[in-house]
Amino acid sequence: xxxxxxxxxxxxxxxxxxxxxxxxxxxxxxTTLGSEHGVDNLVNGAHFAKSNLFDIVLIGPKVxxxxxxxxxxxxxxxxxxxxxxxxxxxxxxxxxxxYNFPIGVSTVGRVITPGRGKEMILATTxxxxxTNRIEAMVRNAIYGIATAKSIGIKTPKVGILNVDGxxxxxxxxxxxxxxxxxxxxAESVRADGGCVMxxxxxxxxxxxxxxxxxxxGNIFMKVFSSFTSxxxxxxxxxxxxxxxxxxxxxxxxxxxxxxxxxxxxxxxKYAYDVAKGNVSEIAKEEFINAKKSKFDTIIESVTKKExxxxxxxxxxDKQVVTTQISGVDIMDxxxxxxxxxxxxxxxxxxxxxTGPIVLVNDAKGKIAVDxxxxxxxxxx
Length: 380
Fold this sequence. Notes:
Helix 4 crosses helix 5 and helix 5 (166-178) runs antiparallel to helix 10. This protein is an alpha/beta fold. The model is unreliable at 305-310 (pLDDT under 50). Among the domains are: 105-302, Isopropylmalate Dehydrogenase (3-Layer(aba) Sandwich); 323-375, 2-Layer Sandwich (Alpha-Beta Plaits). It has twelve helices and 15 strands. It starts with a helix and ends in a 5-residue tail after the last helix. 43% of the residues are buried. The strands form two sheets. Strands 1, 2, 3, 4, 5, 6, 7, 8, 9, 10, 11 and 12 form a twelve-stranded mixed β-sheet that branches.
């Protein structure tokens, strides 16, 4: 086996000499100050990750190691040096802790789900993709798709976590898809299916990319990575991932200060994957395609602030309501009910096992759905 590997390596070198095409070996940085578990924890993770595929450059205090070390004295100097090395191209990506990304950039995590042992992308886990919640989650979906493609998933399947705003996000993504954006939805493992995911789907990794708000993603990241170790030591998964944005070039991946050596090791491998796959360029291309599919118009429709004229809407006479209409977001639920009242349809709001619902009389079911569709309250 050793002779075979040496032979293949020599053949690659010979071919490179003959063609005149040499590829620089990818270098991955790792900052080594700031961990709650000390410098050795990070250095040990780097040693676990050692590979013939990439070189590792430590940025921190001097330590006993055969890896390259660029010495710095404190965390501020460490991040300044990291940025210099990235800008100069000396390193291709870097793993660090507590880095401040600009608005519009969020990190895309990578976990191993406990139900099936399947890898799943969490989009996103730190940062702020946009100040509007719905826009942020739609952007998170694109960030997740770009990251999944950069690590070799050619057609990632996307699920939307059932949090506030999920149905509006589903509507936006469906519009993008209808307008030509290449997007494939995942299917929930629950009997009623759909792309809006429940806790069960998190555990089994139903989608390749799970879209959520950043705060929820951060919590899930911590739970997935430390549920076997009690919370103060993250031992499973690949960390909080690379910062991804519409036009962001630095490949900086985030760890928690509680991340243990196994997660540090995996984060370095993740950093290699997104550097080799060039996640930044893929993200740019995804947004070019999304904008061709009316991304800006779709986002404007959910973020514009219109002056609302107060109107006294009279509630129609009460009726028995047994028909359920799902697909209305929790934040729009009461407005959807009033929209039906305005059109002479008695309705009530409720909460089903899969989320918010509007309840109407059986005879008014189809009429109610048509009214809500026309008003943009449901994608169904």
